[in-house]
Design goal:
heterodimer, A: alpha/beta, Rossmann fold, six-stranded mixed beta sheet, four-stranded antiparallel beta sheet, 12 strands
Chain lengths: 256, 345
């Protein structure tokens, strides 16, 4: 069942009539070169940019017609870098996710605190709750931000390059965590092999337009990589994972 | 930094220690000065057990209102500073960054130089606060109008508009002062702009005290959205906050509080910068727990500083703003040096 749908979303010269769907429980990846419009598309979905044309619908409701609070109850965002200006504890940082469910003057109840604890346990950092957020490693910080998205109780989680700046071990950990939560996820990813392994479907953006969409095995082809990224590549199915794997070829090797 | 204990026990301890510090500073403020009065006698006087005497007059009519005004202004400036740092996402923000004190100074100088109200027989102890508040309000309206564009108000626009308005208003203030024919105008305006609690009187207390209590109460109620502002414009928006509207509303609230306080105390600098950072080191940055601590610490700090201002060069009453700047300036530099490379300023 389709949960999230964009209909011809455009933003100035950066995004052109993008149609995208995310089904309930699906993990959908948006890939493309730098500047292809991945972040712009996600921002139009989670509402910090207002599309110049088209609209994003959640369960048929227009997201841009909602206020920030109602939208934050439907869509949670995991930013690339969630640093706060001053030092908050991990618990305080995660508890912010309860805000869209609260009147502004309401304090957290014991039920909220329980939700925060549960979320921290679910992402595997229950023991870090009282640590200062900036003292966490990149991978732990990303886990905390995923926990914050969970306590928001959203219909969809949007993640903007959640593995940016992370060591490969943490990239794998974070993506495994996200895809095993059972949530509906829309994420922008840089690494095509990670996208191929973790996403159910991919949208490939080039200069603000969708140039390919579908399951990773259908989308990631040498022809597409040549036109969109301008690289020569071989795509094979790696037996251990069953996922398509991209091997980039240096120019000289491919000529030989 | 490693684990910070944020247990309720520790928090209660911090509040208790600060409350005791405030009480101690207040007692010292009542007992010390040109005339030294034993602490036991001060307590008798304050609790109403003493016979009428010159000491009683000094404590109740001269020192007590001054101590109370110091506590109110100190608490208020510290709370406003804390909130503004979150609001414009700048750790170096303070109540005067946004042009409010320049507006108040301009208002006071206009009152002094043109002798407004003196024709009606109004005392300067009344007309100067009124002028300060009017000036602060004018600065607020100017900054607000300049910072808002297309219905949006961002932190950086607010800071830039505040700085620009402050420059223009200080220039006008200086112009009025140097072109004024009478020398005592210059001195009077100068003294006010350095900040001091010398004008404290019982009848000048209810208004600032009411504004402090209402303002601080409201800001503590806004603790949740204030916390959200710490993760930035976009971060706060995706957590459900209408940042532009919130920033505009809190800016007006904090400006009004500052305007009223400054009207009675003059421009006392650096409390709103120094105290919030110290308080965060004690209890962390979450506003619901931070703001009460900031208020108590600000009150204790200004009462202590004012006691020093009255006694270091006695019988001369040094404007307390000079002392807070002497302490605050080096602290400001230390803060700058301490900031990690690449951190937002």
């Amino acid at each position: 069942m389709t949960l999230l749908r964009t209909e011809g979303i455009s933003y100035g010269t950066r995004l052109h009539a993008v149609d995208l769907t995310v089904g309930d429980g699906e993990t959908v990846g948006v890939v493309g070169p730098n500047g292809s419009g991945k972040t712009t598309l996600l921002r139009c979905v989670y509402g910090t940019l207002r599309p110049t044309a088209g609209r994003a619908l959640l369960d048929g409701d227009d997201l841009s017609a909602m206020g920030p609070k109602a939208r934050a109850r439907s869509i949670a965002t995991v930013p690339q870098d969630g640093q706060a200006l001053f030092e908050l504890t991990v618990h305080e940082m995660v508890a912010m996710g309860r805000s869209p469910h609260k009147r502004f003057w309401e304090a957290d109840t014991t039920a909220d605190t329980r939700l925060v604890r549960e979320a921290l346990a679910r992402v595997g950092i229950a023991d870090l709750a009282e640590r200062p957020f900036p003292s966490l490693s990149g991978g732990e910080r990303q886990r905390a931000l995923v926990a914050r998205a969970l306590v928001q109780r959203p219909a969809v989680i949007v993640l903007d390059e959640p593995t940016n700046h992370l060591d490969i071990r943490y990239q794998l950990e974070v993506l495994t965590l996200v895809t095993e939560l059972g949530t509906t996820n829309l994420l922008a990813l840089h690494d095509l092999n990670l996208a191929a392994y973790y996403c159910d479907r991919l949208y490939v953006l080039d200069a603000g337009r969708v140039v390919a969409e579908g399951p990773p095995a259908e989308v990631l082809t040498p022809a597409l990589l040549a036109t969109v990224y301008g690289v020569d590549a071989e795509v094979t199915t790696y037996s251990a994972t069953g996922a398509p794997t991209v091997v980039y070829l240096p120019k000289s090797a491919s000529r030989a | 930094m490693t684990t910070r204990s944020t247990g309720p026990l520790r928090y209660t301890l911090v509040l208790t220690v600060l409350a005791l510090a405030l009480a101690g500073a207040a007692l010292a403020g009542l007992a010390l000065g040109q005339v030294r009065i034993p602490a036991a006698q001060v307590l008798d006087i304050v609790t109403g057990r003493a016979e009428p005497s010159p000491f009683r007059t000094i404590v109740l009519d001269v020192r007590l209102p001054r101590v109370l005004l110091g506590a109110v202004v100190g608490a208020g400036l510290a709370v406003v500073g804390t909130v503004l740092q979150a609001l414009v996402r700048n750790p170096l923000a303070d109540p005067y960054l946004l042009g409010i004190s320049s507006g108040a100074s301009a208002g006071v100088v206009v009152v002094i130089v043109f002798g407004l109200g003196s024709g009606l027989g109004l005392a300067t102890s009344l007309t100067m606060p009124a002028g300060a508040f009017a000036g602060a309000l004018l600065a607020l309206v100017l900054v607000y109008a300049l910072a808002r564009r297309g219905g949006q108000m961002t932190g950086s626009r607010l800071v830039l508009a505040g700085v620009a308005v402050a420059y223009v208003l200080s220039a006008l203030t200086s112009l009025l002062m140097v072109t004024s024919a009478r020398r005592e105008h210059f001195q009077e305006a100068m003294y006010w702009s350095l900040g001091g609690l010398g004008s404290a009187r019982w009848d000048a207390l209810p208004l600032p005290a009411t504004v402090l209590l209402l303002g601080t109460g409201l800001l503590i109620a806004l603790a949740r959205p204030l916390d959200l502002m710490l993760v930035g414009e976009e971060g706060a928006t995706v957590l459900g906050l209408d940042t532009s509207r919130f920033r505009a509303a809190v800016f007006v609230l904090t400006s009004l509080v500052t305007g009223v306080l400054v009207a009675f105390s003059g421009a006392i600098g650096f409390i709103g910068l120094l105290v919030p950072h110290a308080a965060r080191m004690l209890v962390g940055a979450s506003h619901r727990t931070l703001l009460p601590v900031t208020a108590l610490a600000g009150a204790a700090f200004l009462v202590t500083a004012d006691l020093a201002a009255r006694t270091v060069a006695a019988p001369q009453d040094v404007p307390v703003g000079i002392l807070t700047a002497l302490i605050g300036g080096p602290f400001f530099l230390w803060l700058l040096r301490r900031r990690p490379e690449g951190a937002p300023v």
